[in-house]
Amino acid sequence: MRKMNSHTIYMQQALNKAWQYQGVTYPNPAVGALIVCNNEIIALEAHQKAGTSHAEVLALIQAYETLSGETISFDRFDAHQAHEFLYTLPQNFFAECIVYVTLEPCSHVGKTPSCASLLAHIQPKKVVIATLDPIKGHDGGMKRLQEQGIAVEVGVCEAEAKALIEPFMIWQQRAFVLFKIAQTSNGKIGGGYLSSKESLTHVHQLRSVCTRMVIGGNTVRVDRPTLDCRFTGDKAPDITIYSREDNFDRDIPLFAVPNREVVIGDRIDLNTPSFILVEGGGGMLRALGDKIDWVLQYQTPKFSSHDSSYPVDMALTFLHQNSKGVDVMLWSRKL
Fold first, then answer.
1. What is the DSSP track for 77-113?
2. Alpha helices in 210-329 (DSSP H)
3. Using 50, 70 and 90 to split pLDDT, how confident is the model at 282?
4. Virtual CA dihedral for 89, 36, 167, 283, nearest 10 degrees?
5. Which positions ≥6 away from 233 have C-beta within 8 Å?
């Protein structure tokens, strides 16, 4: 059993925060950051959307507001404005702070400036990193910090941090396939909406960033879904209807969504780096069983007498649990 210490406790909170945005940061990894000053947590944040401020930057902005009692007047998710502001603070402003981050601060400059360079400039007391960045060209943040004399510790909750970024690692090489399930507490999947509004909103967030959404042919025929992102207001995903037969009613809402590609067939491109979100019933789960990486379950707190369920033999490893409204949300890896 791992010995718990303050570093572990703080890092676990950063990991939990990052899991709240798992998947929705595509094509970026989910990352969390926490800042402690004089043994008090003054900031806890996570990266929320690709192209916006990273976890460390959001945490530093929150820490500034806590320490100063002031509220920033600009958009904290605008990475360039956030970096520019943090560079203007007095050199010793964060001198007593320890920064915990689940992934090595980025050393490269892309859509957002380098977090490692920012941390090297502001000179916190220490930076604790769960795991190093495995992508060449993105790594080097630890070395940058150490070169500026900042104390760095690596490997706190490393196994958990590597699990957190597993989708990111997969979609560097090929498609990451996530199968989404909504069910009752006794495993039933029929009878209309089974999820809370919070769960539905989260599903629509995932739809809005996925490369393609795959849906079973029987689900389309029976449920006649729309599969849009109306809860978030984002563009609806492109769709592949997984079916050998093209016998679908073109008047159902799914085909009426503008600016969407709908493909019908029983082939899915898994070789191209991408994020594929799958929804469907037991037949779909069986058909794609060996292609699925993770399963995401939304479990609502009620029983149902409906006949529909997932009569499938599949072993899973639970990775993380949190909640969306009244629902329990379970992330699992398929064994």
1. T-HHHHHHHHHTS-TTTTTTEEEEEEEPPP-S-SSS-
2. 217-223, 282-287
3. confident
4. -130
5. none
Its sign, for the CA torsion 50, 53, 56, 59, is negative
Give per-residue pLDDT as tens, 215-233. Answer: 999 889 988 999 999 999 9
139 exposed, middle or buried (CB, 10 Å; 0-12, 13-18, 19+)? Answer: middle
pTM value > 0.90: yes
Query: Looking at the annotation, which residues are catalytic?
Result: 56
Amino acid at the residue 173: Q
The whole-angstrom separation of Cα 319 and Cα 332 is: 5
Write out pLDDT tens, residues 64-114: 999 999 999 999 999 999 999 999 999 899 999 999 999 999 987 888 899
DSSP string, 119-181: HHHH--SEEEEEE---STTT--HHHHHHHTT-EEEE-TTHHHHHHHTHHHHHTTTSEEEEEEE
Angle, CA 186 vertex, CA 317 and CA 196 arms, to 5°? 85
Check residue 138 and give its pLDDT: 72
